[in-house]
Amino acid sequence: MKIKNFCTAISFLTILSFCIGCSFFATTFAPEKKAEISTTELAISAKTKFWETLHGGKYEEIPKVSSLLKAAYLENSKDPELAAYIGFLHIWRLSERSRLKQIPPEITDDAVLSRKYFGEAVSLDPSDARYLGFHGILMMTEGTIHDDQYLIRKGYYQGLEAINQWPQFNLFTVGYVLGGNPKGSKRFEEAVEMMWRNVEVCADKAVDRNDPNFESLLPLRSGEKRSLYLRACWNSQIAPYNFQGFFLNFGDLLVKQGNSVAALHAYSIAKQHSDFSNWPYKEVLLRRIEQMEENKERFLKDDPKQGEFNIMLRAPFSCMACHQEA
Q: What distance in Å separates the CA atoms of residue 306 and residue 310, rounded to the nearest whole number?
């Protein structure tokens, strides 16, 4: 009887080892999913519609455009651009949820879907540090929603790696999300520091925290000084009001921190941009300057009912302050 049981155990372990071995080799040597940019009429039309919707600030059209992009993605799931565009629509819908009259609890599903599609984009095109940064902040966002510390920490460290790859872009991307943390917390202070560092890597010089000279950034408007990486420091076709939006957010974080002097410098430099008068959110910034003292208390809350009187991250123009055309 003992011999029979021993033989049965050996047989079970042999089968189990075989199955584990099969699983290991099957997954290890699975064909790699390689990037392939779509050139079909559907894909081109979907991508065009994405930019029209984003630059037009047409928040209400997100579901329709998302459906179009997903149809193109199902046609070719190897296109990193399609994956990233879908991911961006989901994070846009979540970020500007204060536009909605009623915010449904399932709005949080957009974080899950956005992370999934940015994950696909990272896998297909790991050379694009923007995808890596967005995927990192989505992990932090999803982790916060589900109280998953592992996911929050994994996203945070991926965000730091994205900053190493493209600091001019990802210091803002990561710092923007960290700015939603409570005033005085380690992560909030880190968010403010990331904005300072972002200015410094763009200006290629140290900035006096007590008397900041943001004017040193203005020469970056000239084409000869705008390298591949420095394009993230100025306005572009992708983000027509990137400069103004950056300093609107920076000013908001400084107000939340209680640093009115530096906040005024940040808000004021946005006004010096030659295209300030055409910016759709110029009146918001002017009200920020007028109401800095009141906003010190407002910005401590996370209340969608406050509308524009949340920090930019929580406001109904969270994405549009940089991306919406005049």
A: 6
User: d(Cα 163, Cα 166) in Å, to the nearest integer?
Assistant: 5
Q: How far apart are the first and last CA of the chain?
A: 85
Q: What does the pLDDT look like over 19-58, one tens digit per residue?
A: 556 665 565 556 677 889 999 999 999 999 999 999 999 9
Structure tokens at 114: 């956005």
Please give the structure tokens belonging to residue 59. Answer: 């928040």
Q: Which residues contact 46 (CB under 8 A, 6 or more apart)?
A: 65, 68, 69, 71, 72, 82, 85
CA distance 124 to 177: 24
Instruction: Kindly report the pTM of this predicted structure.
Output: 0.89
CB < 8 Å & 24+ apart, contacts of 258-265? 258/183, 258/296, 260/292, 260/293, 260/296, 261/210, 262/209, 262/210, 262/212, 263/292, 264/289, 264/292, 265/212, 265/214
HSE toward the beta carbon, residue 184, CA cutoff 13 A: 1
Q: What kind and span of H or E run contains 245?
A: helix 242-257
Give the tens place of pLDDT for each residue, 242-291: 999 999 999 999 999 999 999 999 999 999 999 999 999 999 999 999 99
Which residues belong to CATH 1.25.40.10 in the chain? Answer: 35-165
The domain made up of 35-165 has a fold known as 1.25.40
